[in-house]
Design brief:
Length: about 325
């Protein structure tokens, strides 16, 4: 029994791969290295360097490695930039997912765990997002993730009466941070933790965008979760699908309790030992004051819980990037 992890050389993907290996489950990694790192792929783990747009190579890899399920993380993940690159975003995230599903059907692979996103909710009008909260994406990225969920749903419907109906679930992530190993790190040029760490390493002062929100300290509140906790829930979802169990179509992986940008800055100063007072800049257009999700459904079904404090999240992120 082997699981294919698309995007398995990326920050989140590499942690998911490690979580599978820690559970004694075989994995094959697929990644085009457009944002991933080949050194993130564990020694001895089969690695296929290809795009998910290459259906023929995906089919071949699935057959050669006797793949029984897929964790689909590959995609273009930059919400802000997707506004300037909508066609690229849709090609990677929508066409790529369709090609993957075609390859799965051709290779008789009938289980998939899909990496969705909190971006499907847009700016929710509730203090606590649940799976029942209306979806209203506000970027091509968020739209493409929601369409990905629809593709899984529709393929499951189309194959329901066959001998291999598609079994699936989609995990909607919020802000994934930290590191489960000192050699795996977030290299995104858009995520808050690496932006803060990069600024400190370069001798610059990190910046807060917006300090006049209707929140306790005036800065945006977001849902931050540790990448290793996230990875464990992928394994739990895969195990359930592999055993023929039933999962909900979507799950939020959220903390239920948000953290402000200013709190993150304070914590980063503490764990790095680099004192600083963050620069304050105007709000960025489209940034909601607060987005926090309930993880109750995932806690019930996917062994989901917050196992790391904010200090542990920040310290592990710093440990993976600090000078040695």
């Amino acid at each position: 029994m082997t699981w294919m992890v698309t995007g398995g050389a990326g920050y989140i993907g590499a942690h998911v791969v490690q979580a599978f290996l820690d559970e004694g489950m075989d994995v094959v990694v697929v990644d085009d290295l457009s944002s991933g790192h080949e050194e993130f792929v564990p020694a001895g783990t089969p690695f296929v360097r290809t795009s998910i747009l290459d259906g023929a190579t995906l089919r071949t890899a699935m057959r050669e490695h006797a793949v029984t399920g897929v964790v689909h993380l590959a995609g273009y993940k930059y919400a802000g930039v997707s506004v300037q690159r909508p066609l690229h975003t849709y090609e990677q995230n929508v066409t790529g997912t369709a090609r993957l599903l075609e390859a799965m059907q051709a290779a008789d692979v009938d289980a998939v765990v899909f990496s969705s996103s909190a971006a499907v909710y847009g700016t929710p009008d509730t203090d606590l997002v649940t799976e029942a909260t209306a979806t209203a994406p506000e970027s091509p990225y968020g739209e493409s993730k929601l369409i990905g969920e629809w593709l899984l749903r529709d393929q499951a419907t189309a194959t329901a009466e066959t001998d291999r109906p598609l079994r699936h679930t989609s995990l909607r992530y919020f802000n994934v941070v930290g590191s489960g190993r000192a050699d795996l790190y977030d290299s995104s040029p858009h995520n808050l933790f690496p932006l803060v760490i990069d600024a400190l390493l370069a001798g610059r002062t990190p910046r807060i965008n917006g300090t006049d929100y209707a929140t306790p300290d005036g800065t945006c509140v977001r849902d931050y979760i540790h990448v290793a906790d996230l990875a464990r829930s992928h394994v739990a979802a895969a195990r359930t699908l592999a055993a023929g169990g039933t999962l909900e179509p979507v799950y939020n992986l959220g903390s239920g309790d948000g953290v402000s940008v200013r709190e993150i800055m304070t914590t980063m100063a503490e764990v790095t030992g680099i004192p600083f007072v963050p620069e304050e800049a105007p709000r960025r257009p489209g940034d909601p004051a607060r987005i926090v999700a309930s993880g109750d459904l995932a806690a019930r079904d996917l062994d989901w819980r917050m196992r790391h404090t904010l200090t542990e999240m920040a310290a592990s992120a710093w440990e993976a990037r600090r000078p040695r």
